């Protein structure tokens, strides 16, 4: 890991290979299987509170050691040991058309609590996306080309005014954290309360607690320039599945002239080309998590550890294909836009048998993380209590 020296007038630090490739890939999986529409046009985001609210609290576990390492590095770099709390943690991706002009991260009255920023790049400029270069207005380095695993740490005030060029293709993905000296903005205190409300009372029913519960549909609707008109654009869950080569099939009879906003909460199946996969998923978010898990794990190894028989699928009938087309006409209105926003994974290896195994692997992975969060929560709560007493929060 190579560190670049900080300038006194523009305190900042560049860390190369701060995150491993495996850490970056796991966070990419979480984001692409859980994200919603972000705070700016052509931006998608995944927050820790959102993961809890959608029954995916166990996916917080991969963040925790990274957050700790970043916080320690910020405190060490800026000489503020034991002074900081984490104010916000989020996965943020920028698709084609996203950009931001010159600004500091504390440039609004409601952001004045932000003292330090840490941005970790989860993929690479020139390989995974084009455009999206990061620029500081003053000081050195002036320009940063994001590379997977690198991190940029800087003060959130006007000494580090910065901008990001427009992304011209692909999806630029970062893990972004802000830190504050103001303990009233401690993200952990809020997360603990949410976890206690949403995780502990479900802990006796582990299988159900692992199944995601989607947020409201409008949080997933993408349209150019964040237009509210749902006559254009697409649901990003179906959009990401489309980019992976899947369509969504509902077996029940539907009146396509009525409001079908609740449809994506219902059980469904996935289709790929002319085949309907046998497995029934609880909802579209469940199918997306499994599909993204497969392309995270299976695309790398082209096989899972489980020994499986050939996966089950049937050839789509004409009526089933017509239903899929009708669903797409409602939730996937602009497939060209989907293909512009999300990179296709069709080039990746796909095998029906290993996809069937991925469902079991996803359940094992989720169960392992679920157990870890149940074990971590008491320690997290105890640490928070000690912190609160020490600093008289």
From TrEMBL:
PANTHER family: LEPRECAN 1, PROCOLLAGEN-PROLINE 3-DIOXYGENASE. This is procollagen-proline 3-dioxygenase. It comes from the Eukaryota. Its cofactor is L-ascorbate; Fe cation. SMART domains: P4Hc (SM00702). It holds the Pfam family 2OG-FeII_Oxy_3. Residues 73-181 form the Fe2OG dioxygenase domain. InterPro entries: Oxoglu/Fe-dep_dioxygenase_dom (IPR005123), P3H (IPR039575), Pro_4_hyd_alph (IPR006620), Pro_4_hyd_alph_FE2OG_OXY (IPR044862). Its EC number is 1.14.11.7. The keyword Nuclease does not apply.
């Amino acid at each position: 890991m190579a560190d670049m020296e900080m300038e006194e007038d523009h305190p900042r630090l560049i860390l190369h290979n701060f995150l491993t490739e495996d850490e970056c890939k796991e966070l990419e999986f979480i984001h692409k299987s859980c994200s919603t529409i972000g705070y700016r046009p052509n931006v998608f985001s995944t927050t820790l509170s959102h993961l809890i609210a959608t029954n995916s609290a166990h996916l917080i576990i991969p963040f925790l050691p990274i957050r700790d390492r970043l916080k320690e590095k910020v405190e060490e770099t800026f000489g503020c040991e034991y002074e900081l709390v984490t104010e916000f943690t989020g996965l943020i991706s920028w698709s084609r058309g996203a950009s931001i002009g010159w600004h500091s991260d504390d440039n609004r009255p409601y952001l004045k609590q932000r003292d330090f920023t840490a941005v970790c790049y989860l993929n690479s400029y020139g390989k995974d996306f084009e455009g999206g270069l990061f620029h500081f207005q003053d000081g050195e380095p002036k320009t940063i080309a994001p590379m997977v695993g690198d991190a940029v740490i800087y003060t959130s005030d006007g000494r580090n005014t910065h901008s990001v060029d427009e992304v011209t293709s692909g999806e630029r993905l970062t893990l972004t954290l802000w830190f504050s000296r103001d303990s009233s903005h401690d993200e952990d205190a809020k997360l603990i309360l949410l976890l206690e409300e949403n995780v502990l009372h479900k802990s006796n029913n582990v299988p159900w607690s692992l199944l995601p519960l989607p947020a409201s549909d409008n949080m997933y609707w993408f349209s150019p320039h964040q237009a509210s008109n749902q006559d254009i654009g697409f649901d990003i869950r179906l959009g990401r599945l489309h980019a992976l080569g899947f369509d969504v099939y509902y077996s029940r009879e539907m009146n396509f002239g009525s409001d079908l906003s609740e449809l994506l909460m219902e059980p469904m199946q996935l289709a790929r080309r002319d085949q309907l996969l046998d497995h029934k998923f609880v909802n579209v978010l469940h199918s997306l998590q499994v599909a993204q898990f497969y392309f995270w794990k299976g695309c790398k190894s082209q096989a899972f550890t489980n020994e499986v028989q050939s996966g089950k699928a049937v050839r789509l009938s004409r009526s089933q294909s017509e239903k899929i087309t009708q669903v797409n006409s409602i939730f996937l209105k602009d497939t060209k836009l989907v293909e512009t926003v999300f990179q296709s994974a069709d080039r990746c290896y796909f095998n029906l048998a290993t996809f069937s195994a991925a469902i079991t692997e996803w359940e094992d992975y989720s169960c392992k993380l679920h157990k870890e969060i149940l074990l971590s929560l008491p320690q997290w709560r105890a640490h928070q209590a000690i912190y609160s007493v020490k600093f008289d929060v």
